[in-house]
Amino acid sequence: MKKQELTKLKLPDNPGVYFFKDKDGNILYIGKATSLKDRVRSYFNPDLLETRGLRLVTMVTIANTVTYQETSSVLEALLLESKLIKEYTPTYNAKEKDNKSFACVVITKEDFPRVLAIRIRDFEKKFSKKECLAVYGPFASMSQLKEVLKIIRKLFPYRDKCESLNTRGDLVLSGVKLKACFNAQIGLCPGVCTGKISKEDYKKNINNISKLFNGKKTEIVKSLENDMKDFAKKQLFEKASTVKNTLFALNHIKDISLIRDDEIMSFKSTNFRIEGYDVAHISGTSRVGVMVVMEGKEKVSNEYRKFKLEEKVNDDYEGLRQVLIRRFSHKEWQYPDLIVIDGGSAHKQVAEKALVSLGLLIPCVSVVKDERHKPKDILGDKVHVDYHKKEILLVNNEAHRFAIKYHKTLRNRIK
Q1: Which of 4, 28, 6, 11 minimizes the C-alpha distance to 359?
Q2: Per-10-residue mean pLDDT for the chain, 415 residues long?
Q3: Alpha-carbon distance 28 to 332, whole Å?
Q4: What span, in angstroms and rounded, lies between the C-alpha atoms of 218 and 56?
Q5: What number of CA atoms fall less than 13 Å from residue 167's CA on the CB side?
C-alpha cells in the first residue's frame, strides 16, 4: 500500500480502531488510535524501518487497504481492539500464546463478583473457568489496563479485594459495627462490605462493565436513560440524579492519556521468529520440503510443516520455490522475522525472488555446507548472521533432520 492512497480513505481525526487488510480482505493487523487520521499516517513515515522494524514494513507492503471503525472515546477504542484481536487473531498482532505476561480482566462468579486485572500466566494458575463469570483480554500493557479500570470504576463502582457482607455474617451477629473498606470510603466500591448496595443493583454495575468490554456502550446508555426516567416517575430524585451523573460521565470520558506512542506495538518482537526450510529426495523421487520454527531460543515443533512435492522435476531450486509459495499462501500462519535456507547464494536468490513475487520483505540467510555437509559459511545480512548465528545453525540442522525423516517415511511407504 502506498501513502498517496490514504487521501482516498478520508480518515477522521477521531478515536477508533483501524484494520490493515490484504487484497483478499484478510485482516493483517488491528490497531487503536486517539486520532485515526494521525495514527494511520504514521505507518507511512520515511523512517518507518528504523523506528518500527522490518515486520511492520512488510505488513504495510502486503496491505491493500485500510478500513476503520470510529468510537466515541479512546477507552472504547482500546476495549474494542482487544475484543477484535481475540476474535480475528491477525497475523501481525502479538498473540496471547507468545507472551504470558500479557494482562486480562477477570470477573469472578460470586454473589458480589470481583473485577480483577491479572497477568495471564497468574490467571492460569489461580482460576478455573468455573470460577469466572467472564474473562477479557489479552491486553499488552498492565499499566494501561489499570488506567482503563480506574475510568470504568468511577462510572460503575465494583469490589476487588474487600469481603462481601455475606462473608462477614459472624461480625454482624456479634454486634460489631462494620467499617467500610477504603475504596468504599472514596466511592470506588459501592459498599459491598457493609451491605450498602443490594445484590440486584450490584449486578447492574457488573452487567454494564461487561457491556463496555463487549463494545455495547449504546445498550448501557439506553438502559441508564430508562432507569433515570423510572426513578424520576417514582420521585426518587436522588437516584435519578446519580444515574444522570453517570450518563454524563459515560458520554464525556476523559481518556486521552490511555494511548501513548511508546505503548503501540513496536513489531520488534521479543520472541524473534526464525523459520528454516530444506528439501530432500533421491534422484527426484519421494521429493519433500519442510519448514521448522524457532521462537527466541526455543523450538516450536507444533508449528513444523511438511510439503509433499511433485515427482516430475528433479530440481532443488524449484522445490524450494514451491515450498515457500505454498507456505506463504497460509496468511493465518504467523510470519517469520528471518528465513534460513540450506544452500549457497543461488538457493538464497531463489528464495528471495519467491518472497518478492509474493510482496514480502522478509530477510533471508543461507547456510553453505562443505563436502562433508558441515556448515562452513552463512550468507546474508551481517547483523542477522552475527546476532543470531547460533539459532541460524540450530534451525538449519533441525530443518535438515526433519526433511530427511519425512523423506524416509515417504520412501518406506512406497516400498
Answers
A1: 28
A2: 76 92 92 89 75 73 91 88 88 60 88 92 85 86 85 91 63 57 86 87 94 89 92 89 86 62 41 89 80 90 91 79 93 87 93 87 89 89 81 95 91 71
A3: 9
A4: 34
A5: 9
Q: Strand pairing partners for 295?
A: 273, 298
Query: In whole angstroms, how far apart are CA 113 and each of 45, 47, 170, 340, 341?
Result: 46, 48, 21, 51, 54
Task: Please give the helix or strand (H or E) that residue 340 lies within, else none.
Answer: strand 338-342
Cell of 61: 507492503
Nine cell digits for residue 50:
528504523
Asked if residues 304 and 290 have their Cβ atoms less than 8 Å apart, the reply is yes
Distances (CA, A) of 315 to 161, 273, 397: 66, 28, 21
Phi and psi at residue 102, in whole multiples of 5°? -60, 160
How many CA atoms does the CB half-sphere of 337 hold within 13 Å?
Answer: 19
pTM, 2 dp: 0.58
- Among candidate residues 149, 145, 152, 92, the one with its CA nearest the CA of residue 120: 145
Q: Which is nearest to 93 in space by CA: 153, 143, 139, 132? A: 139
Q: Which domains does the chain have, with CATH numbers?
A: 3-87 (3.40.1440.10), 97-212 (no CATH), 273-414 (3.30.420.340)
- Cα 122–chain centre separation: 18
- DSSP string of 209-269? HHHHHTT-HHHHHHHHHHHHHHHHHTT-HHHHHHHHHHHHHHHT---GGG--GGGS--S--
Alpha-carbon distance of 340 to 382, in angstroms, equals 14
